[in-house]
């Protein structure tokens, strides 16, 4: 059985408001995307990694991957207009280049979560082996409110017991046959999700949750990079 990692990295990073997409910013002197790729390249069970980037970035990313010594494990493909499109392009590459079988495992990981650790990746692979679909999640520490947006601001409509909430992170893993058929259904229905699990959930397949780590933050807004630098120095040395 083969295990593939797919990394969508074709976003523009508009919420970061920086000069370049966040996945190319430097963290401890190395691009964020390279940190993320390296974490997966270090797991021997992962046979191949496919990263989706914008067409204009393909050459640069290829060069960075070669510079860091794992060009033999990583294929660069062109991303799409949405995260889901970028993942779909990478899934197509997994099938055409490596002949993925329905029982093979696909892990999808945000390029902008550079502090993912090997133990969490392994836990996700094991859970996909058991359940067919599994994602990393962390318990909610805040009280969660459902709100309605009105002209006068947000008004609370419900308080959701936080014991029933997890924050979804990545990796998110699935049997190849399952994610392929769920993606085909979503495309046919015009559904676009903000993660892969939502696509698989709506196809009616249960998705397990394995524990994640607060250090696995998604670099999204100004300030996140400084926090990641701090974690890298103090917790991931
Ligand atoms: O937009 P969001 O923060 O959900 O992006 C999560 C990941 O999806 C990022 O790594 C981003 O580069 C990637 N993405 C992509 N193609 C897009 C949009 C986002 O690969 N069109």
TrEMBL record:
GO molecular function, one term: 2-C-methyl-D-erythritol 4-phosphate cytidylyltransferase activity
Cross-referenced PROSITE patterns: ISPD
Nucleotidyltransferase among keywords: yes
Sites marked Transition state stabilizer: 15, 22
Keyword line: Isoprene biosynthesis, Nucleotidyltransferase, Transferase
Site (Positions MEP for the nucleophilic attack): 162, 218
Catalytic activity: 2-C-methyl-D-erythritol 4-phosphate + CTP + H(+) = 4-CDP-2-C-methyl-D-erythritol + diphosphate
GO biological process, one term: isopentenyl diphosphate biosynthetic process, methylerythritol 4-phosphate pathway
Short name of one Pfam family: IspD
Biochemical pathway: Isoprenoid biosynthesis; isopentenyl diphosphate biosynthesis via DXP pathway; isopentenyl diphosphate from 1-deoxy-D-xylulose 5-phosphate: step 2/6
Signal peptide: none
EC code: 2.7.7.60
Gene3D superfamilies for the chain: Spore Coat Polysaccharide Biosynthesis Protein SpsA, Chain A
CDD domains assigned to the protein according to its UniProt record, in alphabetical order: CDP-ME_synthetase
The family this protein is said to belong to: Belongs to the IspD/TarI cytidylyltransferase family. IspD subfamily.
Listed NCBIfam families: ispD, PRK00155.1-3
Cited function: Catalyzes the formation of 4-diphosphocytidyl-2-C-methyl-D-erythritol from CTP and 2-C-methyl-D-erythritol 4-phosphate (MEP).
Protein name: 2-C-methyl-D-erythritol 4-phosphate cytidylyltransferase
Source organism per UniProt: Occallatibacter riparius
Lineage, uppermost ranks: Bacteria, Pseudomonadati, Acidobacteriota, Terriglobia, Terriglobales
Encoding gene (name): ispD
């Amino acid at each position: 059985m083969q295990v593939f990692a797919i990394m969508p990295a074709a976003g523009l990073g508009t919420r970061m408001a920086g000069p370049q997409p966040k996945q190319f910013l430097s963290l401890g002197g190395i691009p964020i995307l390279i940190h993320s790729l390296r974490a997966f390249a270090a797991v021997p069970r992962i046979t191949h990694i496919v990263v989706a980037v914008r067409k204009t970035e393909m050459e640069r990313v290829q060069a960075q991957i070669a510079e860091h010594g794992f060009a033999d494990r990583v294929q660069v493909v062109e991303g799409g207009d949405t995260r889901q499109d970028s993942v779909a392009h990478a899934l197509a590459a997994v099938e055409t280049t490596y002949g993925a079988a329905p029982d093979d495992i696909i892990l999808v990981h945000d390029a902008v979560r550079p502090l993912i650790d090997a133990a969490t990746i392994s836990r996700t692979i094991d859970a996909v082996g058991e359940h067919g679909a599994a994602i990393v999640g962390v318990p909610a520490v805040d009280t969660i409110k459902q709100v309605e947006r009105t002209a006068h601001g947000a008004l609370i409509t419900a308080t959701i017991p936080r014991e029933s909430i997890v924050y979804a992170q990545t990796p998110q893993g699935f049997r190849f046959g399952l994610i392929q058929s769920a993606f085909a259904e979503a495309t046919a229905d015009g559904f676009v999700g903000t993660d892969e699990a939502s696509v698989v959930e709506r196809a009616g397949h249960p998705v397990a949750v394995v524990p994640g780590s607060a250090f696995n933050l998604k670099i999204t807004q100004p300030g996140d990079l400084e926090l990641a630098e701090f974690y890298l120095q103090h917790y991931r040395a």
